[in-house]
Amino acid sequence: MPRPRPLPIDPLAEAKRQWIAHGWTDAADGMTAVISVMRAQQLLLARVDTALKPFALSFARFEVLRLLAFSREGRLPLSSVVARLQVHATTVTSTAERLVRDGLVVREPHPHDGRAAMLALTDAGRDLVERATDALNAEVFARPGLSGTDTADLVAIVARLRRDAGDFTDPRPQPEPL
C-alpha cells in the first residue's frame, strides 16, 4: 500500500485553531493532546499490523502468546492473562479460542481451582511468537520513529497519565526510571 502524501497543514493544529475560535480555549490543549495520542496509536498500530501480517497474528493474539512465553512455565491462569493485559475477559477468551483453534495454545484445567482455566503455550505457539517478536523488534520497536530521549520522555509522560488514571500503583521498591 503506497504511503499517502503528507497534508500541507497539520490537521490537529487546525482543529485546535477551530476549538479556540469556537470559544473552547480551556479544552483546546487537552483536545490536541488526546487526538495526538490517538493518531500516534493509529500510526504505530499500522506498523505493528504490517510486521505481524506474515505470521497471521493480530496484536491481541501476539500479546497473549508473548505473555505466555514470558511466564516461567509457558502457562498462566486465564484470569492472570486478563489482569496483565488489562483487557476485558471476553476479549481474552475470544482471542484464546482462536489461538487454541490454530494449535498455538491449549486450555488446561487449573491445578487448584476447578472453575478456572489455564492457557498453555504449545511448541508451535512458542516458535511463532519468537519469530513474530524478532520481526516486531526489527521493524517497529528498534526504530519507533522517535529519538531515544523523546522515546524516554514519551514513556514517562504516558506512564504518569496511566498511573493517575489508576492503571497501576508505584511498586516498592521503585524500578529504574523509564
Secondary structure category: mainly alpha
Overall geometric form: globular
Low-confidence parts: none
CATH class: Mainly Alpha
**Oligomerization:** single chain
Q: Overall mean pLDDT score? A: 92
- Determine the N-to-C terminus distance: 35 Å
Report the sheet with the most strands, covering strand number, pairing sense and barrel closure. 3 strands, antiparallel
Named at the architecture level, the CATH assignment is Orthogonal Bundle
Helical segment tally? 7
The count of DSSP E runs of length 2 or more, i.e. the number of strands, is 3
Q: How much is the radius of gyration in Å?
A: 20 Å
Number of domains: 1
Keywords:
three-stranded antiparallel β-sheet; Arc Repressor Mutant, subunit A; mainly alpha; 178 residues; 3 strands
Structure notes:
This is DNA-binding MarR family transcriptional regulator. The chain is mainly alpha-helical and 178 residues long. The protein has one domain (11-162): Arc Repressor Mutant, subunit A. Helices cover 61% and strands 7% of the residues. The chain has 7 helices and 3 strands. The protein has a 3-stranded antiparallel beta sheet with strand order 1-3-2. A hairpin with a 7-residue loop joins strand 2 and strand 3 (117-121). Helix 3 crosses helix 5 and helix 3 packs across helix 6 (123-141). The protein is globular, with a radius of gyration of 20 Å. The mean pLDDT is 92.
